[in-house]
Amino acid sequence: MSIEPRIAGKRVIVCAGSGGVGKTTTSAALAMGLAARGRKVAVVTIDPARRLADSLGLDELGNEPRLVDPARFAGHGIEITGELWAMMLDPKHTFDDLIAQLAPDEKARDEVLENRIYQELSGAVAGSQEFTAIAKLYELDRSGAFDVLVLDTPPSRNALDFLDAPDRLTSFLEGRALRVFLTGPTGLAAKVVGRGTSVVFSVLKRVTGVDLLTDLSVFFRALGGLLDGFRERAAGVKALLADPATTFLIVTSPEREPVEEAIFFAAKLAEAHLPFGGLIVNRVTPAEGLDAEPEAVVAELTGELGADLARKVAATYRDARALAQRDTAAIARLRREIGDEQPLLIPQLGGDVHDVDGLVRVHEHLFGPAG
Asked: How many CB atoms lie within 10 A of CB 36?
């Protein structure tokens, strides 16, 4: 079995799922496999743990795509005939870039970026990695510089955070509180708010020396000029996610919690009418060769190894068998709940994937031995 038929003709591949299930490794192996088939591919990760950089043998990755030298793969059983680019998302930097792109002129851009309120708030907003990740994806797609983009999504426990990111940002920008700041309260509210806030802000200014009221006024006035741009960007991002050339791959492991999240995320994809491309289950313990009962293993090995050693071997065998049975049951449930009859199964490999050799092994399971 190969992933190739499921991603044929796709321009954007989104690898989604809970944290710690191997999404970054899967994304890197997918991108590497496509680059080995002559495509120009960029893989985007938000993983701050440097797994992508380490597995590709790079010292560091920045907020712009960096070409991976094909020579790094020489002698590892794979030849890169296309181009493989990689980047690690910097949420704050990406959000600043977005402000710069949407600002009508340099004066408006500088007013926002240099504003103290923005500098504090942007960290919190950019901390919503879901929005900045897809904002970067949208930017790269519009550039037309790559044949395929592979996105390693944030390790969010709530899949809705990713799917709802455009709506949540525009809801914040169009919210009542923001409108009050932009247009000002009226009537009695204006008198109460005006008197109360002026007292508070004047005290703050005397104590801290910071003119917070002026900073707030400048910030919200400048932000108001960007609202239309944010709305258009959010609409563009939603259209990209629903595009027929986009596909979502759900990555999971057989453990209980990731399985629950994978099922939940698949349901949300269907509800949002977003394109589901397939299920990838990492770290599966194969059941082949584990049919015998542990007692039979003891009986068979006692003559050759002695009773004590045979019982220890059987205990290890029993643990492996229990894991295989758990994984078999988990995969059956995933098939039933998600409706993917043939998920791609990647067996538990010996140790973490932290180099090109490890990526090549994952790639072989994704694309098949003929790939």
From this structure: 21
